[in-house]
Specification:
This protein is mainly alpha-helical. The protein has eight helices and no strands.
Length: 159
């Protein structure tokens, strides 16, 4: 049987089981799954359902969300959630262009800190379209105040 994209999950489960000083049989009993099925999950041969992962997480006393991410169950949901968050910030008429940019940079830094990497397409950059009234409010010359376009002082970089 070909290995699925759950090898990382299996290795992680094995490490957690060993850290908890449980045998494969003990964990299988505690999680309510069969011993052979749990063995196949640990070897990357089976992709467990979210329900099985929840039972295993409960038996190991670890976060089910961690197992969902390692199994690839949450990736698509997280990507969609990230895009929605970015769209909501960019669509907020109460924020200036600079505020939107800074808020998205902070959001991205928190995501990186929590191990979810950077966004390839949705990241705020100085060239992102911003409402013209935001630019003029920040800097009458049309640029955003503090955006580093002038050479009068040291440049600051975010994050």
């Amino acid at each position: 049987m070909a290995s699925l994209n759950v090898g990382n999950l299996g290795e992680y489960l094995r490490e957690q089981r060993r850290s908890a000083q449980l045998s494969l049989r003990q964990l299988a009993d505690a999680a309510g799954v069969s011993n052979p099925y749990l063995s196949q999950i640990e070897r990357g041969l089976r992709k467990p359902s979210a329900e099985v992962l929840q039972q295993v997480a409960k038996a190991l006393r670890i976060s089910a969300e961690t197992l969902y991410v390692r199994a690839g169950i949450l990736d698509a949901e997280r990507d969609r959630s990230e895009a929605e968050t970015r769209a909501a910030v960019l669509a907020d008429p109460a924020l200036t262009g600079r505020q939107k940019q800074v808020l998205l940079q902070i959001y991205e830094s928190f995501r990186k800190e929590n191990g979810f990497g950077g966004a390839e397409d949705g990241e705020a950059t100085p060239g992102d379209p911003v409402d013209a009234r935001d630019r003029t409010a920040a800097d009458p010359a049309g640029g955003m105040a503090g955006d580093g376009d002038d050479d009068t002082g040291p440049r600051r970089t975010a994050g």
